[in-house]
Amino acid sequence: MQKLLFLKVRFSIRFRILNAQEDCSHKGSGLSLIENVKELLKAHEGLTREVYLDNENSSITPKEVIDAMLPYYSQRAYGNPTLTHKPGWEAFETIMESAQKITAFLECKTLEEVNFVPGETEANNLALLGATLSMKDKGKKIIISEIEPITVLQVIEMLQKRDFTVIKIPVDDEGFINLEKLEAAIDSETVLVSLATVNNEIGTIEPIREALEIVKDKNSHALFHTDASDAFGKIPFSLQDLNVDLATISSYKIQGPRGIGALYIKEGINVEKILEGQIGTQRLWPGVENTPAIVGFTKASELAFENFNENTQHMRRLRDKLIDVITEGIPEVKLNGPKGNKRAPDNVNISFLKCEGEALTIELSLKGIYVSSGSACTRRLLQPSHVLVALGRHFDEAHGSILMKVTRCNTEEDINYVLEVTPIAVERIRGITGSTGAE
């Protein structure tokens, strides 16, 4: 019965995705999907333990963060921060105090360098589009790596349609960028380089300082952006030391609320607006500021940094236990990305051969373990992760990948449960599909 349910939901989800890709409509397909999902949710009833490890795609907001946010919806600072009354002044004060704290965590020079935006996607759009608009008379060449996050890649694809030349620098089989190829690609036409500090899928900590030096030595006018969403609060990270021009950070990646992030813009760097509307405290992003979310982002940052070494050591222990036990105890698996200190402390990405990742996420979910199959954004396109392809992984290795990210809130007992259930789930899926499910 459960096998039939699994196959029905898997087909329904794939049909819905393909339907969306073809931009056509099939009457009743949406209702059918809803009914199948209801049936799957019903199959989850009676779970006695749940472990959330899908922190790449969303996160559980801790009680301390929610408690910090709640008063700002109805008790204080609920006004527009640009208006001249008490709730407005309270909101202005709250946003400025939050910006001061984020500035300190990032080790920025000035308060004005931190720009609150609705999230990582928006920050990357503002960085890439705003920077290229400001540099439009100086060149039309952009350099990224082959493994940048989807939120960077899709903006770059848009810029390609506007006649920008894009060079993608290759990486090795652990995801480290080829610095020699980067140096060769830089020229006088280069206006922007964007390289993530930590790869969001495989946890590779890139040599950003060395990359920045190469770029600035060859073209001091080229702007350097880094998506630091998977670095902030997880590895030692100082913008004063790093000296990049632009940096993206995200709230939910450190268990803050969704819908808020920030773009660091170094003092003296010009970035043009990409949206029009009422401007408040944020000069580059129009609209009324989301004060409760900013407060939550700040509280999550405080929790990440107040016991930074203890938190990261705890995550590293859980990460290594997952990697070691799975790779040593389950046959035909492969770790994606490096081991040890060159990997982010929260990241586990493993390919299970002859076991489709999408199917394994459903099987684990039925046991109360929540993970993702490679990159969620990539999965919706029914294509293997571009990151794993860039590493040289084969189709079955990429499609059989599972991504888990631990947090300071996960426990040893959580990981023990995952390690108890995963081998059984893998064996079951291998028995059902007999392959990676590549049609």
Overview of the structural elements:
α1 runs antiparallel to α2, α3 (63-69) runs antiparallel to α11 and α6 packs parallel to α7 (150-161). This protein has a seven-stranded mixed sheet with strand order 2-8-7-6-5-3-4, with helices on both faces. A three-stranded antiparallel sheet has the order 9-10-12. It has helices spanning 2-21, 29-43, 63-69, 71-74, 86-106, 120-134, 150-161, 179-185, 208-218, 239-242, 291-306, 308-329, 357-365, 376-379, 386-391, 395-399, 412-433; strands at 51-52, 114-117, 141-145, 165-169, 190-194, 223-227, 246-250, 261-265, 333-335, 347-352, 369-370, 401-405. Helix content is 46%, strand content 12%. It is α/β, with parallel strands linked by helices and 439 residues long. β6, α10 (239-242) and β7 (246-250) form a beta-alpha-beta unit.
Radius of gyration from the alpha-carbon trace, in angstroms:
22 Å
Overall geometry comes to: globular
Using the coordinates shown, work out and report the CATH topology of the largest domain.
Aspartate Aminotransferase, domain 2
Structural class: alpha/beta
In this structure, how is the largest beta sheet organized? Answer: 7 strands, mixed
Please report the total strand number as a whole number: 12
What's the arrangement of secondary structure elements?
Blueprint: H1 2-21, H2 29-43, E1 51-52, H3 63-69, H4 71-74, H5 86-106, E2 114-117, H6 120-134, E3 141-145, H7 150-161, E4 165-169, H8 179-185, E5 190-194, H9 208-218, E6 223-227, H10 239-242, E7 246-250, E8 261-265, H11 291-306, H12 308-329, E9 333-335, E10 347-352, H13 357-365, E11 369-370, H14 376-379, H15 386-391, H16 395-399, E12 401-405, H17 412-433
Parallel strand pairs: 1-11, 3-4, 3-5, 5-6, 6-7
Antiparallel strand pairs: 2-8, 7-8, 9-10, 10-12
Helix pairs in contact: 1-2, 3-11, 5-11, 6-7, 12-17, 13-17
